[in-house]
Design a protein that fits this description.
11 helices, eight-stranded mixed beta sheet, Serine aminopeptidase S33 domain-containing protein, alpha/beta, single chain, AB_hydrolase_fold, 8 strands, Rossmann fold
Length: about 290
């Protein structure tokens, strides 16, 4: 799909009522100490795009881990992930909030719903290792498309790590992921006829292949779940009508990791679990991560 930055101009003053609490939480987070004084960093993607990020070194000593925070579709790093900055800092983490390809200040005209973005995330992992230490623990945390992206990245990473080696990525937090992009598009097409859906999906696949140079079949987190070993925490709002919570339920059920968690938040819409129940979210997050970090 082609880049669009229009959503970044929406604020709590001009948004739809359903989005106001989400945007207010983001806007409030910008005023806090946790998002002050970022270190600007960048990488070059494997297909030549310059991708930007903001690294927040908030721990006086060595952090317990570094979180790579990954935003969602047609959004931005600070907009989606800045709200978690205090949570990261309280738990002893530094954090890198990235701009995905074709979003905000990163280059690119086409996004690929995790197919290429997952490889970008692995390149961000390499940068974190260079900035800190080769053995620095890393947590991947994404929302919506970002959640799908980190799950795909974790699956690729798991295949690269030798069974006898200690991986840098110690766990993933996937908030409101879709289980595969084709199924998500079929859902969003709603009650349209099967012929209309078939044509639309065919055009989507062709567009991905010809313009974005990616395969839609690679944007499928559920494919990774059948062999993944990394600990995974899934979060979903029970009232999410954009990406149904059934997606996280399916991912959780097929996930082969020995350490996995599922948090379903009552009365929360899409990526709004931390808005509706911030204390429950942080308690579950902290307990989950504490069980993994030595």
């Amino acid at each position: 799909m082609k880049r669009s930055d229009r959503a970044l101009n929406i604020t709590s003053d001009n948004c739809k009522p359903r989005d106001r609490a989400y945007l207010l939480q983001y806007e409030e987070s910008l005023k806090g100490e946790a998002l002050k004084d970022p270190i600007l960093v960048h990488i070059k993607s494997r297909d030549g795009l310059v991708l930007k990020g903001r690294l927040y070194k908030k721990q006086k000593n060595k952090p317990r881990a570094v979180v790579i925070a990954v935003h969602g579709f047609h959004s931005g790093g600070l907009r989606d992930m800045g709200r978690f900055a205090d949570m990261y800092s309280r738990n002893g983490f530094d954090y890198l909030i990235i701009s995905q390809r074709s979003h905000f200040d990163s280059e690119g005209e086409y996004l690929t719903f995790g197919a290429k973005e997952s490889l970008d995330v692995l390149d961000w992992v390499d940068i974190v290792r260079k900035i800190y230490a080769p053995d620095i623990p890393i947590i991947l945390h994404g929302v919506s498309m970002g959640a799908a992206t980190v799950l795909i990245a974790a699956g690729i990473y798991d295949n690269l790590v030798d069974d006898n080696s200690k991986p840098n990525i110690i766990c993933c937090i996937a908030d409101s992921p879709y289980d595969n992009i084709i199924g998500q598009i079929e859902y969003l097409l709603g009650k349209r006829s099967n012929i209309t859906k078939k044509i639309a999906i065919g055009l989507f696949k062709a567009n991905m292949r010809l313009r974005a140079k990616a395969n839609a079949s690679d944007a499928s987190p559920i494919t990774s779940m059948s062999h993944i070993k990394l600990p995974i925490m899934f979060v979903h709002g029970k009232d999410d009508r954009y990406v149904l919570p059934d997606n996280s339920l399916r991912l959780y059920e097929v996930c082969k990791s020995e350490i996995k968690e599922l948090l379903i938040v009552e009365e929360a819409g899409h990526v709004c679990s931390y808005v509706v129940q911030p204390d429950e979210y942080e308690k579950t997050f902290s307990s989950f991560v504490d069980s993994i970090i030595e």
